[in-house]
């Protein structure tokens, strides 16, 4: 059973019973404590179920989500124009090319993962997609209008942990649009989505064993960037537990 479907995790308080006392220090341990104060109740219950240290789970969530606070209806996303072409634009080339550009396609220079641009109309100026969440959301909304909710979600990295929409089944969702809807509704589903994604791919044992480089390579292929951040977060274990709680 997926974590998101387990009654104990559905019912678990998102907030911890004993949050860290404010004001929190401006330090790596303080940053971790801020994330814990938002989702620590859920992580403690998940720790009991998985037999993984709650601080290890917190380190994974904090690092992969960049410690971002949740705002209803505004879960972080990254809209990948080349993926939208794959999932919708290839069959609708003329309409796609009127609104989107990406490297290696229709004369745009660079690799497919670069030079992602959009425009709402033929008279509008081409603008970079990856220039902040407002532009990411604008690109997603345009894709949703053109190709539907599923194609837009399939082309996006969703939630704090930026899980690819096309991996929705690994998180226990029937389609990418449902994953996007859940992540927008509550930070609970983003946290559980991340750990369902990891469990479905056999990566939780890497978290349990604090094998941060292997976990980083597995979840995003970027061990050089992500692994040191995970190692540093886990290294705050004792400093975090020493902070005063209410």
What Rg do the Cα atoms give? 19 Å
Tally of individual helices: 13
Number of domains: 2
**Main beta sheet:** 3 strands, antiparallel
Summarize model confidence as the mean pLDDT. Answer: 97
Low-confidence stretches: none
Helix content: 40-55%
Number of E-type strands:
6
Order of helices and strands: HHHEHHEEEHHEEHHHHHH
Basic shape:
elongated
Outline of this structure?
With 246 residues, this protein is mainly alpha-helical.
Q: In words, what does this structure look like?
A:
With 246 residues, this protein is mainly alpha-helical. The chain contains 13 helices and six strands. It has a three-stranded antiparallel β-sheet. A three-stranded antiparallel β-sheet has the order 2-3-4. Helix 2 (28-50) crosses helix 3 (54-64).
Fill in the keyword field for this structure:
246 residues, mainly alpha, 2 domains, elongated
Element layout with pairings:
Layout: H1 7-11, H2 28-50, H3 54-64, E1 77-79, H4 81-87, H5 93-99, E2 100-101, E3 117-118, E4 127-128, H6 133-147, H7 149-154, E5 156-158, E6 163-164, H8 176-185, H9 187-200, H10 204-208, H11 212-220, H12 223-234, H13 237-242
Antiparallel strand pairs: 1-5, 2-3, 3-4, 5-6
Helix pairs in contact: 2-3, 3-12, 8-9, 11-12
